[in-house]
């Protein structure tokens, strides 16, 4: 995390380092509002047999990673896997 102050304004930047296979999940987790992220995770847990985190998708019953079976290269892959319509990051703040 980094902090700096511009005249009359304070800013915060979070710097996150992730492994390449976790990139789409980290991007999904850090782009949009906290409520959007919580809603996607809640949907995943309540409507599917999976659990979503910033590290990947696991099978809820066994905690086994789905990434051993399915390849996720983009956020779109995650939305598609979950059966959701893709929402671009700039629309997640609405």
Helix segment tally: 3
* CATH fold assignment: Beta Polymerase, domain 3
Instruction: Measure the end-to-end span.
Output: 25 Å
Structural class: alpha+beta
Order of helices and strands: EEHHEEH
> Major sheet: size, sense and barrel closure?
2 strands, antiparallel
What is the second-level CATH architecture?
2-Layer Sandwich
Characteristics:
4 strands, two-stranded antiparallel ribbon, Beta Polymerase, domain 3, 94 residues, two-stranded antiparallel sheet, 32% helix, single chain, alpha+beta, 3 helices
Structure summarized in a few sentences:
This protein has 94 residues and is α+β, with helices and mostly antiparallel strands. The protein has helices at residues 23-30, 34-47, 75-82, and strands at residues 2-6, 9-13, 50-52, 57-59.
Question: Can you walk me through this structure?
Answer:
This protein has a single domain (18-91), classed as DNA polymerase, thumb domain (Beta Polymerase, domain 3), CATH 3.30.210.10. The protein is 32% helix and 17% strand. It contains three helices and four strands. Strands 1-2 form a two-stranded antiparallel ribbon. Strands 3-4 form a two-stranded antiparallel ribbon. A hairpin with a 2-residue loop joins strand 1 and strand 2. 12% of the residues are buried.
């Amino acid at each position: 995390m980094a902090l700096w102050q511009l005249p009359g304004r304070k800013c915060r930047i979070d710097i996150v380092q992730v492994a390449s296979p976790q990139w789409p999940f980290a991007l999904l987790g850090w782009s949009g509002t906290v409520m959007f992220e919580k809603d996607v995770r809640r949907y995943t847990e309540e409507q599917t047999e999976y659990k979503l985190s910033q590290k990947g998708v696991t099978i809820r019953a066994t905690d086994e990673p789905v990434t051993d079976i399915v390849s996720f290269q983009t956020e779109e892959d995650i939305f598609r896997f979950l059966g959701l319509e893709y929402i671009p990051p700039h629309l997640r703040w609405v």
